[in-house]
Write the structure tokens for this entry.
Amino acid sequence: MKIATFNVNGINGRLPVLLRWLAEAAPDVVCLQELKAPDDKFPAAALSQAGYGAVWQGQKAWNGVAILARGGEPIETRRGLPGEDEDSHSRYIEAAVNGVLIGCLYLPNGNPAPGAKLDYKLRWFERLTAHAADLLATGAPVVLAGDYNVMPTELDVYKPERWVDDALFRPEVRAAFHALVAQGWRDAIRSLHPNERIYTFWDYFRNAFGRNAGLRLDHLLLSPAIASRLTAAGVDQAVRGWDKASDHAPAWIELADVATPARRRGSRKPAKPTEG
């Protein structure tokens, strides 16, 4: 089972990129973020033609999350996190796919920091952590995948000294991520690549992708009930170099059908190494 997360940075504007990647990489489940489209503008028909059922929560011009399932329909179990009823941002959706509970999230950016946006980010992190604890308590196989807008360690950011005051890298934000993982979640990519610089985001400016001046913002966390099934993890970095690409690249994991002690290291293998 291959599960991926991809911040598409505008699903309709990037639809050709998304469809090309789906055809080449053939993930079984995909979590999408930053749809930047209201519900009625979500391209469900095009995705269905590509072989994917979907559930989604859109928002005009901003945010938006979706879960895709190849050859089937995700069974939606939740949209939005508990704990702040007045929060209208479309940032979390949850669905069951082939016996796995998938939580797709788009955590707030938090800049400028300090300030109200950072405060909102930290409150959102607290709500996510509380909900994640409830999910762990069920003992179910769960994957929490998405754009967390945090680089957990210095290994996850190009020139970390330049990011010390940014809301993506501030100590309290990293501490919130580590507190979440400490509940018992497994950071899939980092666990298979403990010492490698792996990025999932490259800014459009200053030739960041060409210089590989990136950030690892997109993470897949696995509950104990599914962590032993992890066999590979990586990033389809070449997708970032395609024409009219998102500033993120898809991150993915592969899970064995049953728990296995044998694990192979993933790689940043592209869907196909060509650039459009």
Notes: The radius of gyration is 17 Å.
